[in-house]
Amino acid sequence: MTTEQVLMDAKAAKGKLALLNAETKNAALLAIADALEADIAAILAANEIDLVNADERINNVMKDRLRLTSERIHAMAEGIREVAKLPDPVGKVIDKTERPNGLQIEKVRVPIGVVAIIYESRPNVTSDAAALALKSGNVCILRGGKEAFFSSKAILAAMRKGLVLVGLPETLINMIPDPSRESATKLMTAVDYVDLLIPRGGAGLIRACVEQAKVPCIQTGTGICHVYVDETADLEKALNIIENAKTSRPSVCNAEEVCLVARKIAPDFLPRLRHRLVDDRLAAGKQPVELRCDPEAYALIGGTPAGKDDFDTEFLNYILAVKIVGNVEDAVAHIALHSTHHSDAIVTENREAAELFTAAVDSAAVYVNASTRFTDGGEFGLGCEIGISTQKLHARGPMGIEELTTYKYIVRGNGQIR
Q1: pLDDT digits (tens, 9 = 90+) for 61-117
Q2: Could you tell me the pTM of the whole model?
Q3: Residue 134: what are its φ and ψ, rounded to 5°?
Q4: How far apart, in whole angstroms, are the C-alpha atoms of residue 32 and residue 141?
Q5: Residues 367, 370, 372, 375, CA torsion sign
Q6: Greatest distance between any 2 Cα atoms in the chain
Q7: Which of 170, 267, 326, 408 could form a cystine bridge with 160, CB 3.0-4.6 A?
Q8: What would the pLDDT profile of 130-181 be if each residue is shown by its tens digit?
Q9: CA of 51: how far to CAs of 45, 47, 65, 121, 376, in Å?
Q10: Looking at the DSSP assignment, which residues form a beta bridge with residue 322?
């Protein structure tokens, strides 16, 4: 099947999906979740092909991002079931008013239409995106990366079995069969077919979509996420937060990439940070974190001298840039210069510092005394997310089903003329 045929199939299916009620969509989602679990063996076999093909091209951290397990597939299915439990946004009346002339005006949520998602090496995006699109009444077109091609294809096959079981057309969920750059360009320029394009991946992919797309595009973000340790911070709390934000899954966009430390506590805190992220991890047989330090931090704990680009890099690996700053105002200023507006955190026991940080840091998610790893649709109660938007229109932060709708006005009258 060609990209053009996929586009035509998706457009033809748009009207059918928009008319489905919540019960039918939920039944489809539950059938899709069951089908994923029934096809675990086939999905894992396909994933093994992807892992073998990618063996020499990607590092171990990125392989973990690509790898599926039975537990991860069960988690994907549970995420779909959580989406099924959510209230249906379609048809929700956002606002209602009656004009002096008797016109009744309702502002009502409706699907966007055909939503295309371009993503890279995370096969779970295939099921997350499809579930959210279906629940919100949108036909989806999935275009995964070559690293996860066979995994995504097997996941699609399982999901389509679920659709057929409940009597729905399989073209409600579509996949581009060609992971080439040309197919991505076709999606970006498919003006008559695609109502919204969402890229999920590295900076290069997102930049290409933003610069080349002729269809509406939501910029999902690379995550240069900061944790600032204030001079009043509980240091043990700070260590726990940083260790989680950096090492729990370093290949994802909500992982910490930069640690900022108040100068007053740096001589005490930085050696403890090095011990936690380097020495303790080595002793436990875990991969240590490479600390790339500015000159002041390097003088205290060594590590690797930070290069000129290290505070502007999404490492997606066991690497952390470290810088000493004077105070919360300096931390905010540094973040303003280097942030990708994804997720940034302050660790502090000072209420005024926390309020200044949350008011001044212009990111989609701003944390006080918590890990940046919570920027996630499931953790925010959205079931799962189709991406993390770092722009301000039309959505910001984790994008769930409401962010995949728009609205229209329904106006009821009784013969009024103007």
Answers
A1: 778 889 999 999 999 999 999 999 999 999 999 999 999 999 999 999 999 999 999
A2: 0.88
A3: -65, -45
A4: 17
A5: negative
A6: 80
A7: 170
A8: 999 999 999 999 998 888 999 999 999 999 999 999 999 999 999 999 888 8
A9: 10, 6, 10, 10, 25
A10: 259, 293
